[in-house]
Amino acid sequence: MSWTADPRVEQILARYPDKKSAVMPFLYMAMAEHGYLTDEAIREVSELVGMTSVQVSSIATFYSMYKRERVGSYLISVCTSVSCAILDAADVLHAIEDEAGVPAGETGDDGVFTVEHVECIGACGGAPAVQVNYELIEGVKEDKGRELVRWLRDAAPDTVLGDEMQALFGGQRSFEWGPAEGEGATGPVPALDALGTTGGSS
Ligand code: FES
């Protein structure tokens, strides 16, 4: 990626007294470019912030939302922390793994699905909670998890919308009065408006 031509670089650096503090937004920008963090991206970010590649790599591997390998068009994240576990999140995860043909932590050979289990995603009141490309669906049961996978495979939506998936595959929500869904997600990278990473590679 062309860091020198990107106006966000100076804007982000200006937010911090020490440029090392900009490492995480730069990693998100690099991931939006490639869909995952390449070795080259790690090296480029390390040069930008004045850290070693090993130091930057240690950050990129500590936080689970940074991906060091290519992920599928649809990243399905199933929360298996306590509130979700009590409400059978393990069964939901296994149903999704089985329907996608992809074990948790892996990406299918056809590049359609990556499945992962994650720690609490802040939707405990709507457990079990699932995300597709970081778009939230609450109250997902085993059968609906299977339907979700089939729908993604067959409909292959370019953009996934949390509200739409909630209506089709969700159940009990944490709050019924939340704001309406925005633009949705067009790729398996976190959509951070402030960094211009809405969308992203798939
Ligand atoms: S425990 Fe699953 S969202 Fe909090």
Give a structural overview.
- Helices cover 39% and strands 10% of the residues.
- The protein has 2 domains: 7-62, Orthogonal Bundle (Arc Repressor Mutant, subunit A), CATH 1.10.10; 74-169, Glutaredoxin.
- It has helices spanning 7-13, 23-34, 39-49, 53-62, 82-86, 89-100, 142-155, 162-169; strands spanning 74-79, 106-107, 113-118, 130-132, 135-137.
- A hairpin with a 2-residue loop joins strand 4 (130-132) and strand 5 (135-137).
- The protein has a 5-stranded mixed β-sheet.
- The mean pLDDT is 92.
- By secondary structure, it is α+β, with helices and mostly antiparallel strands.
- It is built from 8 helices and 5 strands; from the N terminus they run ααααβααββββαα.
- Helix 3 (39-49) packs across helix 4 (53-62) and helix 6 (89-100) runs parallel beside helix 7 (142-155).
- FE2/S2 (inorganic) cluster binds at residues 79, 81-84, 120-124, 127, 129.
Write the layout of secondary structure elements.
Blueprint: H1 7-13, H2 23-34, H3 39-49, H4 53-62, E1 74-79, H5 82-86, H6 89-100, E2 106-107, E3 113-118, E4 130-132, E5 135-137, H7 142-155, H8 162-169
Parallel strand pairs: 1-3
Antiparallel strand pairs: 1-4, 2-3, 4-5
The structure holds FE2/S2 (inorganic) cluster.
FE2/S2 (inorganic) cluster is lined by residues 79, 81-84, 120-124, 127, 129.
